[in-house]
Amino acid sequence: MPEPAPPKREKQSPTDVSFLRPTALGFIRMRGKTDNGRRWYQEIEPELAYILVREGAAVVVNRHTIRRLYSNKEFRQLILTRDNYTCRFCGKYGDTIDHELPRAKGGHTTPVNCVCACYECNQLKANRDVDEFMGMLD
Ligand SMILES: [Zn+2]
């Protein structure tokens, strides 16, 4: 039996933020799942939505909505296995997540901004950004 022809429809790229349009109230909707598989939903600033999509933490679902790709637990797993449980700063075993640009300074929890760190480096680095911290190690 021949395959039915795929429906002809313009489809936006899931990573194309230019497709996003804020709602009448000026927000983008974001949805996702908790570690327990419960669905959640929140409204966020468009600027944040663009960053989350560009940095690989979310995809565009439709013009008002993005979907967070990972629960907290999944995100942690993703970063630690990507970095082979190796601290980005000292090269030893690590199993904590560090925000290269700290959240306190506007960094976000995305694959681009997060790396594996050992407990000691993570504590020591605290709210410093990478350049500051690497300077301290020299
Ligand atoms: Zn370390």
Automatic annotation (TrEMBL):
Residue intervals of the HNH nuclease domain: 74-123
Pfam families attached to this UniProt entry: HNH_5 (PF14279)
Keyword tRNA processing in record: no
Gene3D superfamilies named among the record's database cross-references: 1.10.30.50
GO MF term (any one): endonuclease activity
Keywords associated with the record: Endonuclease, Hydrolase, Nuclease
Name of the featured protein: HNH endonuclease
Species for this entry: Paenibacillus paeoniae
